[in-house]
Amino acid sequence: MATRGKRTQATERTEKSRYHHGDLRQALVDAAVALIAEEGFAALTLREVARRAGVTHAAPYRHFADKEALLEAVAAEGYRAMAREMRQRMERVTGPLEQLITAGEAYVLFAVRHPPHFRVMFGPHFTRPHEPVASEAGEDAFSLLVRCIEAGQAAGLLRAGDRLSLALTAWSQVHGLASLLVDRQIDPAEHGSESAETLARTQTRRLVEGLAAPLGQGRG
Amino acid sequence: MATRGKRTQATERTEKSRYHHGDLRQALVDAAVALIAEEGFAALTLREVARRAGVTHAAPYRHFADKEALLEAVAAEGYRAMAREMRQRMERVTGPLEQLITAGEAYVLFAVRHPPHFRVMFGPHFTRPHEPVASEAGEDAFSLLVRCIEAGQAAGLLRAGDRLSLALTAWSQVHGLASLLVDRQIDPAEHGSESAETLARTQTRRLVEGLAAPLGQGRG
DNA sequence: CATTCGATGTTGTCGGTGTCAACATTGATG
DNA sequence: CATCAATGTTGACACCGACAACATCGAATG
């Protein structure tokens, strides 16, 4: 995360006591993520975030309307990163079923590896209605799943039925597993897996088996 | 919710200006749930909860060590109510598969009908490690699912395999659907269902189909 | 009944927080 | 160089979580 990229200005003053920060906005987002990871949501304070970014308590208001706006930025970063990671992993695999498995795995793994982002994305922290808004239209996680389902059905490898409904089944499965892992309701060690990675793979495989077309495509 | 029951004392003083409340503890839990439902988590304030219960701002500390302890009480109430509702619905159905479907439906429906409880139970609101602690050992939601799976396997109706792993699949599915509904990530209307109830039934049925033993393709 | 005492509710206080307004500093632009 | 919009600082206010000291009730005891 924290892919900054544009470092065009900021001109490297001796690192000491420069009035302007350079990229405070991203620094605040990073600090918020780190703070959530280290101390939990209860400790997420705009003032502490500012402190960690090396700036006074009102500086964040030059970049975010309020605390919730900062969280929206964290969520947006999460949506982009998650979809990107899913796409990258899926590119390295061929076949609709394998791609579906890979997509599901990537979903769970993103959650496990970036709990603060995942929690902010799907948690109950927003009062304003907050739209997922992926980086580009049709490139969000759910759209990726829907396209996998379509391709699988077209190839006769997946159960027939409403695409959206099947995609929702897949989304629920991986989202549930991710949520339970992130919220520490389940411990991979207690489920015969030495890591969240193998658990994600096992469960996602079973999901796709369940969605697979009955042998011979006869459908009973 | 809010099953008070023991109203032995409190002696009905003219409803006005009585110093002692009678059952403030439960009143505080109820007020917290209502406040979360109406205003969201950001508005959940110990002082506002006290206000709604008609007491001053420090009164809650006679019943709860701190704000988190109040949330633990909400979660505990949720765990008890959820398991109770699942058990009650399952009693009215026979057959392992039908019971499994019913259990899954009940899980999702509880979440949809009691969002504050569900969110507190599984949300990121606790800093202290907080054990689910069902009303009685082996009576929590997951244990109910595990027993359904066992019975289904014993009857040859469910896929063979590690019970815990299969139960985790089922739990992930219903938990994911419940979470997505509660967090308003999906709208039942957009998925061909006019209500969360029908969506829960459709998805839970598909889950059990996927877990069913692959012997008769009769589509059950 | 009068006294006592533990449980429960109140008042006052403290440091910390979200948010805003007024002010200060900077770098870019003319 | 002068100006100005962007960005960071200072100071203030109301609210919150938590604690301590005090007040009030009801039940048990004599």
- Radius of gyration of chain A, taken over Cα atoms and rounded to an integer in Å: 20 Å
Structural class by SSE content of chain A: mainly alpha
Please give the most extensive interface between any two protein chains, plus how many residues each contributes: A-B, 47 and 47 residues
Quick one: CATH class of the largest domain in chain A? Mainly Alpha
Low-confidence stretches of chain A: 2-16
Main sheet makeup of chain A:
none
Q: Specify the CATH homologous superfamily of the largest domain in chain A.
A: Tetracycline Repressor, domain 2
Q: Which strand-content bin applies to the residues of chain A?
A: under 5%
Overall body shape of chain A? elongated
Q: How many individual β-strands of chain A?
A: 0
CATH fold group of the largest domain in chain A = Tetracycline Repressor, domain 2
How many helices of chain A in DSSP terms? 8
Cα end-to-end separation of chain A: 48 Å
CATH architectural category of the largest domain in chain A: Orthogonal Bundle
Descriptive keywords:
homodimer; 220 residues; mainly alpha; Arc Repressor Mutant, subunit A; Tetracycline Repressor, domain 2; 2 domains; disordered N terminus; DNA-binding
Polypeptide structure, described:
Chain A has 220 residues and is mainly alpha-helical. The first copy, chain A, has two domains: 21-64, Arc Repressor Mutant, subunit A (Orthogonal Bundle); 79-217, Tetracycline Repressor, domain 2 (Orthogonal Bundle), CATH 1.10.357.10. Helix content of chain A is 56%, strand content 0%. The first copy, chain A, contains eight helices and no strands. Chain A has helices spanning 24-39, 46-52, 67-91, 96-113, 115-122, 141-154, 163-182, 196-211. The longest helix of chain A has 25 residues, at 67-91. The radius of gyration of chain A is 20 Å and the shape is elongated. The model of chain A is unreliable at 2-16 (pLDDT under 50). At the A-B interface, helix 7 and helix 8 of A face helix 7 and helix 8 of B. Chain A binds a DNA duplex (30 and 30 nucleotides) through residues 9, 11, 18-21, 24, 45-48, 55-59, 61-63, 66-67.
